[in-house]
Amino acid sequence: MQQMKILQIELYKSGRLEKGFNYRYFVPELINCQWQWSDPLLSTLLEKASFSLGELNSFARLVPNKDLYFENLTRVREKNDLLHWLKYFLIGVDETARESSNTLSAILSLRGRLEKTLSNTAGRRTDTALMLLMHLFEQPVIRIKQVEKICGLSTKAANDLVGLFQQHGILKETSGQARYRIFCFEPYLSLFN
Fold first, then answer.
1. Which of 32, 46, 89, 170 could form a disulfide with 165 if both were Cys (CB 3.0 to 4.6 A apart)?
2. What is the 3-state secondary structure (H, E, C) of the chain?
3. pLDDT in tens, 177-192
4. According to the lineage, what is the superkingdom (predicted)?
């Protein structure tokens, strides 16, 4: 009950406390091994927020400390402190969105830099090199046979193109084999670590 009074005081100070509105506790119910909220508006809000987080692919980033995450959920269940959990959740969403934005900026910067490098050094193979580069952003691990199919090249021409990419540090051979080599788009993959 003390938490509710504090919340009402905070709302009053910010000018958001409506007189005559019935403020009540939101009590979660355990349905099918999941906590569901009795208030349909709150359930919808939390469901949409969870879905958005899934789109950010960020549960691991949002919850680096799983103990703290579950401690906050338990605090909601035991002390009905939903406001604290929502603050924690929204801070995680904000941090994840910022990280995603920074990663996207780094990807666009990398793409521009590599396009410029290949345009200046690939000579008459520029179009083919740029075609392979665009494919590497979709599929960052590749073999020579795939380069042949993507670019419509012979085996020798595909090997030469991959060699050019290796010289510029775009591709790195990871299999350690003489045949059926596997190449990784290392600068791109390193942005996600």
1. 170
2. CHHHHHHHHHHHHHCCCCCCCCCCCCCEEEECCEEEECCHHHHHHHHHHHHHHHHHCCHHHHCCCHHHHHHHHHHHHHHCCHHHHHHHHHHHHHHHHHHHHHHHHHHHHHHHHHHHHHHHHCHHHHHHHHHHHHHHHHCCEEEHHHHHHHHCCCHHHHHHHHHHHHHCCCCEECCCCCCCCEEECHHHHHHHC
3. 878 888 998 998 888 7
4. Bacteria
Cα torsion angle, 120, 125, 131, 136, sign: negative
> What residue segments make up the domains of the chain, in order of their start?
6-101, 121-192
Q: Is the Cβ–Cβ distance between 27 and 38 less than 8 Å?
A: yes
Cβ atoms 118, 129 nearer than 8 A: yes
User: Tokens in use for 13?
Assistant: 């100070």
pLDDT tens-digit readout, 114-160: 999 988 888 888 899 999 999 998 888 899 999 999 989 999 999 99
> Which are the contacts of 47, defined by CB distance < 8 A and separation ≥ 6?
none
pTM over 0.70: no
